[in-house]
Amino acid sequence: MSMNFTLKQLRYVEAAGRLGSIAKAAEELAISQSSVTAAIDALEHALEYDIFVRTPARGIKATPSGQEALRLIRGFIHQSRHFGAELQSLGQDATGLVRIACYGTAAPAFLPPILKSVTERFPNISMQVLEGDMAGIIEFLDQGRADLVFTYQVSLNAGHDFETLFHAPPYALISTDDPLSREPAVTYADLAERPMVMLDLPGTKEYFLGLFESRGLTANVSHSTRSAEIARALVAGGFGFTMLNILPPDYRRNDTRFRAMPIRDETQTQVFGIATLANTRQPKTVRSFIESCLELRDAGAFDDLIVGLDRAKSTRKSGNRAH
Predict the structure, then answer these.
(1) Which residues pair with 258 in a beta bridge?
(2) Are 112 and 300 in contact (CB under 8 A)?
(3) CB neighbour list of residue 210: distance below 8 Å, 6 or more residues apart
(4) Any residues with CB less than 8 A from the CB of 104 and at least 6 apart, and which?
(5) What is the distance between the alpha carbons of residues 269 and 251, in angstroms, rounded to a whole number?
(6) Of the residues 244, 262, 280, the one at which a domain ends
(7) Do residues 274 and 162 both lie within one domain?
(8) Is 201 left (phi over 0), alpha (psi -120 to 50) or beta?
(9) Are residues 179 and 249 in the same domain?
(10) Looking at residue 300, which CATH number applies to its domain?
């Protein structure tokens, strides 16, 4: 069996599989549809099995063997993308592009100090940032569109490696007009008596509702939004409380209309950090980026993002690699 195909052809095949369409792949790559079709035909001929099932007017769909082939192709493209930069950086400072995917609601809180630190230490590293919900950013990683993702450990599987940055227990954001805001902490029973502004993102709503249900309580959801900023505005306006895990620094400094409060009877915590593909040697640029993040963690740079600093400090003492 001859395996005579090029990296360019593999990119064409990967794009077609990812987009489910030869036409869309051609548009993304700015090439002709016939070039994509020819690449698929050449690879299928070399492999001696079909990668895709093609249905007129309905695009293409990977066969079971094709799905495994696409996984291997994406891994190969992921490695090859950094090959030139890795060679160039030998004996020099890290050079190249790091593609970062972030959980959208958390990114504004923790990403600026990371980007600032990496830019100062490694001026030859450039960064591309992708945002999405937890499922979406893991898809970016699995498809090879991101080198690493910032997310919660709970969203990962055995195909990912994980570096802990901090533990982020849930907290309640409560209007200062509510007498409860003057207490040192709240309980889930306290919160169940009040209207809740729900951050309604995939996986997020179920997570917060489950915190009440596991205690035999029911959250009183009166408003829903997909925006953490709108949730904050509704809390400030007295429409109810909301719950989050990561505290943006300006919540603590610049607004007296609400207060971030720890939950007294909270027994679980979410672990936030950096996920990469397992069993994959990262290029020097990505390794340097991750090392900078871990140094920031050990210096306490993320402490202000957590409601309850005792947990942040324990993260720095024990915070190590998890898989």
Answers:
(1) 175
(2) no
(3) none
(4) 131, 132, 133
(5) 20
(6) 262
(7) yes
(8) beta
(9) yes
(10) 3.40.190.10
Task: Identify which of 285, 304, 323 has the alpha carbon closest to the alpha carbon of residue 122.
Answer: 285
Domain region containing 187: 171-262
Residues 298 and 238 in one domain: no
Which one-letter amino acid corresponds to residue 93? D
Structure tokens at 160: 């990912």
Q: Is residue 2 part of a domain?
A: no
191, 241 Cβ separation under 8 angstroms: yes
Q: How far apart are CA 292 and CA 36, in angstroms?
A: 40
Q: Which residues contact 126 (CB under 8 A, 6 or more apart)?
A: 96, 97, 98
Number of domains in the chain: 3
Domain assignment present for 138:
yes
Per-residue pLDDT of the chain (323 residues; tens, 9 = 90+): 456 678 888 889 999 998 889 999 999 999 999 999 999 988 888 888 888 888 877 788 888 888 888 888 887 877 776 666 555 555 455 567 889 999 878 888 889 889 998 888 888 888 889 988 888 898 888 888 888 999 999 888 888 999 999 999 999 999 999 999 999 999 999 999 999 999 988 888 899 999 999 999 999 999 999 888 899 999 999 999 999 999 887 776 556 889 999 999 887 788 999 999 888 777 778 888 999 999 999 999 998 898 864 543 444 444 444 33
Q: Which has the closest alpha carbon to 235: 254, 258, 201? A: 258
Task: Return the amino acid letter for 257.
Answer: R
Q: How far apart are CA 85 and CA 285, in angstroms?
A: 8
Residue 16 covered by a domain: yes
Classified as helix, coil or strand, 95 is coil
* Domain assignment of residue 141, yes or no: yes
**Rounded distance, CA 66 to CA 241, Å?**
48
The label of the residue with tokens 């090029």 reads 6
Task: Tell me the pTM.
Answer: 0.69
The span from the CA of 140 to the CA of 67, in Å, is 16
**What CATH number is associated with residue 75?**
1.10.10.10
